[in-house]
């Protein structure tokens, strides 16, 4: 197992549309192990494959509060089949936009159809932080970031800040 390097804003890969996964093999299981190791190390409550540079429709999740009661979840080829009219607001962050947090409004509850790590079809209903996190991760598979829901002023400001930081890194 290994910790993978995170893709950080304004890397163009974050705007890529990820491709459906045709099935689960040994290599994919190994990749998922790396994703969990990377996500727990960060630490984050979710991680989309593109955040470690793989444009695959896959994310890992664990919204459990404590280390000793881990609830790892693997989500492959997800589709939202229902969204509540009721909305909720959470302060979101993203491992690809480190140390930047803003409130985002999204549907409070959703139904999600997906394939699990054995490629079995599943459907769940989620609310609370799980619903928010699933929508945040699914956005990553479509090249969408949580800053896209902010005002243009705020979005441009954070992109500029990270572009400058990347340039400095480049010159160092
Ligand atoms: O670790 C994360 N925390 C988080 C908090 C509120 C809403 C969404 C998230 S997901 C984020 C990890 C990440 O960037 N996943 O793509
Ligand atoms: Ni994210």
- CATH top level? Alpha Beta
Number of helices: 3
Ends distance: 30 Å
Radius of gyration of CA atoms, rounded to a whole number: 16 Å
Order of helices and strands: HEEEEEEEHH
Tell me the structural class: alpha+beta
Blueprint of the fold:
Elements: H1 26-41, E1 46-48, E2 58-61, E3 73-83, E4 87-94, E5 97-107, E6 109-115, E7 121-127, H2 128-141, H3 152-171
Antiparallel strand pairs: 1-2, 2-3, 3-6, 4-5, 6-7
Bound molecules: ligand GNR and nickel (II) ion (NI).
Describe this structure in words.
This protein is of the alpha+beta class and 172 residues long. The protein has one domain (12-171): Peptide Deformylase (Alpha-Beta Complex), CATH 3.90.45. Helices cover 29% and strands 30% of the residues. The chain is built from 3 helices and 7 strands. The strands form 2 sheets. The protein has a 5-stranded antiparallel beta sheet with strand order 1-2-3-6-7. The protein has a two-stranded antiparallel sheet with strand order 4-5.
List its traits:
172 residues; alpha+beta; Peptide Deformylase; five-stranded antiparallel β-sheet; 3 helices; 29% helix; binds ligand GNR; binds nickel (II) ion
Care to give the gist of this entry?
With 172 residues, this protein is α+β, with helices and mostly antiparallel strands. Helices cover 29% and strands 30% of the residues. It has helices at 26-41, 128-141, 152-171, and strands at 46-48, 58-61, 73-83, 87-94, 97-107, 109-115, 121-127.
